[in-house]
Input
Amino acid sequence: MQFSSIVFIFVFLPITVAVYYLVPQKFRNPVMLVASLLFYAWGEPVYLALLVLSSMFNYFCGMDIEEKQKERWLARRSLFVAVAVNLLILGFFKYYGWLLGTFNDLFSVSIPYRVLSLPIGLSFYTLRAAGYLVDVYRGEVKAQKNVFQFALYMMMFPKLCAGPLVPYAAFEPQLGRHAVNVYTLGRGASRFVCGLAKKAILADRMGEVFAQVYALQMETFSILTAWVGCLAFAFQIYFDFGGYSDMAQGLGMMFGFDLGTNFRYPYTAKSVSEFWRKWHISLGNWFKKYVYIPLGGSRGDTSIRVRNIFVVWLLVGLWHGAKWNLVLWGFFFAVVLVLEKYAWGGWLAGLPDFVQHAYTFAVVSVGWVLFFSPDTGYAMDYLEIMFGFGRRALVDQQSLYLIVTHWVLFILCVLCSSMRGWELFCTMTEGRKNVIVRRLAVGVFYLLLFIVSVAFLVTEECVPFLYYLV
Amino acid sequence: MMENGERMRMGGKTGKSGKGKKSGLVFLTDMFSFRVAAIGKWLVVVLILGYVALLLWFTGGSTKPFEEVAQAVESQLDTENLVKRDVQALKRYFGLNGADYAGVLYYSSEFSISAEEVLIIEAESETQVQEIRDAVEARLESRKENFSDYAPKQAMMIEQAAVLVRGKYVFVAVSPDAERYADVFRKSL
Output
């Protein structure tokens, strides 16, 4: 089920909220668990059993690792087995077909194999499980003895399919008493509506612009068309995933959980390293804690530090999908981050702000081309056009048509990508001196946002979240 | 007495560590949970393996070339009642662009009074699979409504249509032989 589907908004969510608020405190976790199982079963009934079994496996492994703590090597062996099994499950569903396909292509053979579709959320689920097991091994958290509470950590529906990756240490204290009241419900609902609007009004509309460019024959592109397509995708993925994260955070608030912040206006960054500190924050934190720092982080000589950056980014690329262009995407950002760290980072910081913003946006856009391309050949051809290597026209009718018909949308996206949009909203509402008028203005604003979003959801095709496919 | 006895049998573990305050019952529970954890994880691994095997068997897609799969099904079709259609028919009836997919095989009845049809599509991606599923559902739903007024038997046949999604393959059969065709399709993968 999608957060942005009509069934979720008008049936699943109201019923779950009502039951959750009505039952006594001690029944709230079971209600949330049952709701989470139903939520997953709605879209992926076949994989629900896999998720439950995997959850049980990690539950047992956590206890097993903790029990063996006195004999450190036994605990390490247990951790290794547990993480290996999790990675094997992910590897089988996500990389097995890709690797065999690559093998077939490389050696011109045709080994037949059966493939299964990737269960939604498995990539996030695996990282969540691995993080928990490592934390138990390190003694940072105690293994969860209550199987239902553990299952809730692993499968709670607001963060099940695409994060955020909340560390167990931050989540465990929230499994006790949930402070829910009208205030948290209201705050959560407004956050949810913001996310819904980002998805339904901005991301999906930008997705249509991108789809128009993507459907064109690349031979007919002008340079501007290529940039419009890239810009459209940049906004689509930001508002799609950012919208999802807002909705997840809002749902968490409604049910008395703090799921953390996943985005902090990444397109306002003045360097690529800053961009990655503002984009998908929970994933960045995960890789930093469980891969980068154990590898040595920023300690050691330059070659070790460079190696660590490359290892982390190749893994980040591979985690995003089983495609060579995503590996290249990770490699590209590793190169850029190394160069920023050791070559032009200091020089860049001395340039005017708008140059730094333009540089960051251009580099990130190149990254998005590698991200959305079906293969590396397509990506290279697209980049050639974007940077004027293909003897293409600078502007054509197609690009002008796309800009003229969507300029309002582009401006809205620019506004909402920065603090400017929020500031504008605050000026409009907080400028009122009368508290009642101010509250009424805020209420009317969110109601309008909700109505417009729902109107788009009803009239347009429901587009799955891009990160559901990761 | 019981507590002391249990502690002795457990090899004096609590005594050595000086944590003798733990009651024997709690200690036993801990030991039990330890064993459960150690054994349980392997038991669950076996269950996961079994489940994945079942998934592969019943829902797994295949990398077999489309032509092989299509030929296997085509050879079993009742071609007296069914006529091979082109991609334009696919566009007209399902709203799908045949050129977007890795392979398309579409047969339907030449008589408008009959709802019989067989469709196999190999998609290029998972997203396309969903798009095809949606189109198939919409087509079956609208035809069922149309037929229910004047040909209830045909509407019933649509109701019992075989719709299978195996990896990137989508198979649809509306026919009295739907189950047999589906079986041939499954075996051809």
